């Protein structure tokens, strides 16, 4: 991993603000689901906050994002208003997708969130289509496509990266490598040592970074974005990270050796980033203010989600085609 | 008469003209597929010939052999306003891209609560009878028809192909447009340049009173031949060309069968669990007490498409099968 | 009573026991799938729990997320005498592996002229009603039923699951065995250890005289509930549990409907172009003049599976739908 | 490309014998189809003889082969009797598959030919299954899996190579790189410079050789086979070659620049190999005898194919399932 310079203070503050919103949102989701206030399948993102926050801090609101079922961090970092997002997670008619998509299928074009998929690897070919549109449109947008280490074993990864490379599409493939695909460790599923190596095998500019280090992650993101906007094509970023609460809520992480988990906790990006801010003379009070603001946002969003109505049942006949389906 | 327009065109040509027209009308129309640009010959069946020369290789792109990437690129660009037309060279190859088509193209409008839509067209071709064997001839429209959110279209003649493919490209829903390889180079009357065939509307290319033959694609020609033969015996067949297989035009089908009180559904696909079953069921459900006899079905046999011509012929739906079924139904 | 065998077992457990039995009986039985070995938890739904500990990780292999490679490895090993059981975690994921299943597993016996066969089993699970949304709940059995050479099986209770899965593994044809996620942990009477349910044979778990409810998988439980309710009103329903969806047991179905002269086909899958259409068509074709009314069909709505519980419920096939359809048919 | 030593004379003779049978068979097929004696879609193999002949010379009859629509060279080199093969190409009941499979779907377990597929890339995952069986069975067999350069762009390639690598399966992935997939040149479809590079990206032992040089190809094949039999896992061999008669018969190769075609003709492996034999003091008469024997084999096979009957029509009800389907 590179020895990048520390990012600017305001960049780090921006990243922290997004990352803290993610961390608190994740915690709140887990709490509310645990308490039976929400009955949903939830893919925790605790541990991966900084990867996402730094990546999204390097792009604009109108750049595109394609992400996956484990997408809360990406969606929040990209800027979907918490109320809309919470309501969708809760299946309410006030949600981003009127409750039809749910957590695995968040779309919010206003903030560039175009697709969230539950099919491993499938977002990659779609991201190319967004990139192709930008290339034809000359709109200077980039598309960020998030997926996991496990996804790099599926065919769509290979086909998608190759097509992006030959057409020099402005797409950033962000592999959030948390070492596990469900309960299986990467070493048991992946013939190559790294995912970046696979990108190189496909002729693509590929980097491997400590995704938990805000400055390093941000620098890699920024470089990839500049590269893409300059018309030089895609980058594969393999961002090393970890997920602390298993594949989905309820998963006890029994398959993760104790030492590995302990090491990961030591590398927890959130306390590190917070300390970096303090080291940069950001005051404890300023940080606390950010945290409090995020808490308030979540309070409001969670309440909004709980208070909102479920959609009417026959909503299923709408949005299947461009015309309503007869009852 | 030298500057009159041609009176007849081939099926493949009709598809080519429909794409050319769509590209001229809307610069969001782009084409993707293996070998489709002119440098690579304008498609293995030349259906896209001349289009990259006219509209450039930015808009007409030869792709790697990567069907998931092809359909995915179509999905993504469609999400942000393009009207991609992706060619899946032969229908069997769609089996490697079903995820993109079914889990994504067909569902994203719904799952996004209507925030996005996926106005893509998949063009593909298939058809048995020419010795291409088990992996290059399958008719899989029944799978696609079962997927809510997808439209499935098949034309039986060049003019319809022209009008339907144009409508498919301009439709705001994902459409699979199925061409038929063995009839690519058969001719039919040329359509007017502004000819359009709306999706969801069947045609009645032959009116009759004794029985309705409900079909699409290559089944239409076969049904005409049988109708012609039976007319000599005083049996009057009405032919319904569905044109859009899903969602199909129930109104036209039911109106016809309400009149004739007998029907046979005809398709090239394997009969078991084919689209004919749905059409037959719908007719029974709506017109049970009007029917003279149960709705008949004609389709190909329960086997992969055989290679050898003798077996392929025996396996495949045929005019004889249609005639036999009509006679059986009419007692 | 402490050393008596349990009187009831769960569906997931029944599948586990069937695989354990097959592995004990035949060392050519191997398992492949994501997270299926015990180190990874014995499968996300624990259906394969304990099997790698007992039979080793050579025979019970956790795989990468590579469904084409999983099914392909099953096809290849089956060609040379193994009886692989490949888990496709959820049925929607089969969309990335349709080529292996349809173009290869289903066709290689035929295309090789019978020189090879592909005795593999694909186990997969699915089912709506638990808020998993559009990409994790689809019932796609109609696609598979339309593919000549593939058998499609679904059990409605633990004992049948045990007997059918064992038969599927021992069958010399490729079989897709569809499990139902929402009912994995429901209990039913335990089968005897040597219990076998032959493929291709439906059961008649409830006899009746007024109408036949023809169904499979989760439709069976729902049909029982409706039959029970209607019995109170003197309406006598016979229930046919197909167990093998394709090729289905026409004899048992037709015998039942010949007796009751009325039928409703019930399934969880989307109604349009679903398996119910084929069954309905076959009944009409064979028993048209005996029927009191057209065969009814119950299935889920024409839409992707919705996330929100209110919409999901409205969309999904239900006991109310069955009851309404029975009343409509019986006039 | 390596500077391998010249192979032994008897090895080269063996390779030549197979390669000449291929070359003559291909020529005869093209002739008979051109003359209307056979009506089939035919994928010419002229130019790729040596790749195949050298590969199959390095394995045993009971080793497995998975190949593709362009498979005549592989099938002949592997040892399928010409009569059976010709009859199948002609769709006759005396063919390997009773006429049900046809040229794109040749199976002949007696000589280890397990699958011929018409779906690009699909043989790769199946080859793994054969390799897995051998690994479990400890039967010391290897599986050779042939495919083209274009096939390396499809998902199944990626998934299959990765699985073979992590499980160390005894499979040799033989990419016959003839530069074109149908009418599209590799440079327009492939982001990497070589296919071997992709194998390396997947962590696999990968080599790129001049497939038209019998000795170099044989050495690479032998090494890969030894590696696999020793339990060390798969190898990707990228064998550089060319096809002289287009994608399928009737293709005019209009998309191939004249200079490229001329260069390829200069590199034609067949005259080179023949000259190598002469240089090794094999007499012209001995070579002519081999050629004449091959001609006789083909004469007999072609006549057998023409004379044989087509299968009865209702054969389609047999071999769908293990029981006959009712009419
Ligand atoms: C095609 C497909 N196969 C299997 C699954 C089931 N599945 C869901 S998430 C997952 C693990 C993915 O791991 P990774 O890509 O590393 O992402 P992570 O969950 O670690 O963020 C699996 C196997 C799926 N959703 N899609
Ligand atoms: C999945 C799939 N897509 C497309 C095709 C059509 N097709 C047949 S051969 C071919 C080219 C393959 O090129 P390559 O792998 O280089 O092999 P070659 O024909 O050159 O030997 C294509 C695109 C196919 N058979 N399967
Ligand atoms: Mg992971
Ligand atoms: Mg090639």
UniProtKB/TrEMBL annotation, chains A, D:
The keyword Cell division does not apply. It comes from the Bacteria. It catalyses: N(6)-[(R)-lipoyl]-L-lysyl-[protein] + pyruvate + H(+) = N(6)-[(R)-S(8)-acetyldihydrolipoyl]-L-lysyl-[protein] + CO2. The keyword Iron-sulfur does not apply. Residues 41-310 form the Dehydrogenase E1 component domain. Its cofactor is thiamine diphosphate. GO terms for molecular function: pyruvate dehydrogenase (acetyl-transferring) activity. InterPro entries: DH_E1, PDH_E1_Alpha_Subunit, THDP-binding. GO terms for biological process: pyruvate decarboxylation to acetyl-CoA. Keywords: Oxidoreductase, Pyruvate, Thiamine pyrophosphate. CDD domains: TPP_E1_PDC_ADC_BCADC. The pyruvate dehydrogenase complex catalyzes the overall conversion of pyruvate to acetyl-CoA and CO(2). It contains multiple copies of three enzymatic components: pyruvate dehydrogenase (E1), dihydrolipoamide acetyltransferase (E2) and lipoamide dehydrogenase (E3). This is Pyruvate dehydrogenase E1 component alpha subunit.
TrEMBL record, chains B, C:
Gene3D superfamilies: 3.40.50.920, 3.40.50.970. Residues 9-186 form the Transketolase-like pyrimidine-binding domain. Its cofactor is thiamine diphosphate. Pfam families: Transket_pyr, Transketolase_C. Keywords: Oxidoreductase, Pyruvate, Thiamine pyrophosphate. InterPro entries: THDP-binding (IPR029061), Transketo_C/PFOR_II (IPR009014), Transketolase-like_Pyr-bd (IPR005475), Transketolase_C (IPR033248). CDD domains: TPP_PYR_E1-PDHc-beta_like (cd07036). It comes from the Bacteria. The keyword Nucleus does not apply. GO terms for molecular function: oxidoreductase activity. This is Pyruvate dehydrogenase E1 component beta subunit. It comes from Parasphingorhabdus marina DSM 22363.
């Amino acid at each position: 991993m590179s020895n990048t310079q520390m990012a600017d203070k305001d960049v780090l503050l921006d990243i922290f603000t997004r990352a803290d919103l993610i961390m608190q949102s994740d915690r709140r989701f887990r709490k509310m689901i645990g308490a039976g206030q929400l009955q949903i399948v939830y893919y925790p993102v605790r541990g991966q906050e900084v990867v996402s926050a730094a990546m999204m801090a390097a792009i604009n609101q109108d750049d595109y994002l394609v992400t996956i079922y484990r997408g809360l961090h990406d969606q929040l970092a990209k800027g979907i208003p918490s109320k809309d997002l919470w309501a969708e997670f809760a299946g309410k008619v006030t949600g981003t997708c009127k409750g039809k998509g749910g957590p695995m299928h968040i779309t919010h074009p206003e903030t560039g969130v175009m697709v969230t998929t539950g099919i491993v690897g499938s977002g990659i070919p779609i991201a190319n289509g967004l990139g192709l549109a930008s290339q034809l449109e000359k709109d200077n947008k980039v598309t960020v496509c998030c997926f996991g280490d496990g996804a790099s074993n599926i065919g769509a990864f290979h086909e998608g990266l190759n097509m992006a490379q030959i057409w020099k599409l402005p797409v950033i493939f962000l592999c959030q490598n948390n070492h596990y695909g469900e309960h299986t460790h990467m070493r048991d599923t992946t013939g190559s040592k790294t995912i970046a190596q696979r990108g190189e095998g496909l002729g693509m500019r590929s980097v491997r970074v400590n995704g938990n280090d805000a400055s390093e992650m941000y620098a890699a993101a920024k470089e990839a974005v500049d590269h893409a906007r300059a018309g030089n094509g895609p980058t594969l970023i393999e961002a090393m990270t970890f997920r602390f609460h298993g594949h989905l809520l309820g998963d006890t992480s029994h398959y993760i050796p104790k030492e590995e988990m302990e090491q990961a906790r030591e590398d927890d990006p959130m306390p590190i980033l917070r300390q970096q801010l303090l080291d940069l003379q950001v005051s404890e009070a300023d940080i606390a203010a950010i945290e409090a603001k995020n808490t308030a946002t979540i309070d409001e969003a969670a309440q909004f989600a709980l208070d909102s109505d479920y959609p009417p049942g026959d909503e299923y006949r709408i949005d299947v085609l461009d015309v309503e389906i007869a009852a | 008469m030298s500057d009159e327009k041609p009176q007849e065109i081939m099926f493949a040509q009709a598809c080519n003209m429909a794409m050319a027209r769509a590209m001229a009308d809307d610069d969001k129309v782009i084409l993707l597929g293996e070998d489709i640009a002119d440098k690579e010959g304008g498609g293995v069946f030349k259906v896209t010939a001349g289009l990259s020369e006219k509209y450039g290789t930015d808009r007409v792109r030869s792709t790697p052999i990567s069907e998931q990437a092809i359909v995915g690129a179509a999905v993504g660009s469609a999400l942000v306003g393009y009207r991609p037309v992706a060619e899946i060279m032969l229908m069997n190859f769609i089996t490697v891209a079903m995820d993109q088509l079914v889990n994504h193209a067909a569902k994203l409008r719904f799952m996004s609560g209507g925030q996005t839509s996926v106005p893509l067209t998949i063009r593909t071709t298939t058809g048995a009878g020419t010795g291409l064997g088990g992996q290059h001839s399958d008719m899989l429209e029944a799978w696609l028809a079962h997927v809510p959110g997808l439209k499935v279209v098949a034309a039986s003649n060049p003019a319809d192909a022209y009008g339907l493919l144009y409508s498919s490209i301009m439709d705001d829903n994902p459409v699979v447009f199925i061409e038929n390889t063995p009839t690519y180079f058969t001719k039919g009357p040329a359509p007017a340049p502004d000819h359009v065939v709306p999706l969801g509307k069947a045609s009645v290319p032959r009116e009759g009173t004794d029985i309705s033959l409900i079909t699409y694609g290559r089944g239409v020609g076969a049904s005409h031949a049988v109708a012609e033969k039976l007319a000599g015996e005083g049996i009057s067949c009405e032919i319904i060309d569905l044109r859009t297989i899903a969602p199909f035009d129930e109104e036209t089908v039911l109106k016809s069968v309400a009149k004739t009180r007998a029907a046979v559904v005809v398709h090239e696909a394997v009969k078991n669990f084919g689209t004919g079953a749905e059409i037959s069921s719908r007719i029974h459900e709506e017109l049970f007490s009007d029917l003279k006899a149960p709705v008949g079905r004609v389709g190909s046999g329960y086997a992969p498409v055989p290679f050898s011509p003798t077996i392929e012929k025996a396996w495949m739906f045929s005019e004889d099968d249609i005639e036999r079924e009509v006679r059986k139904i009419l007692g």
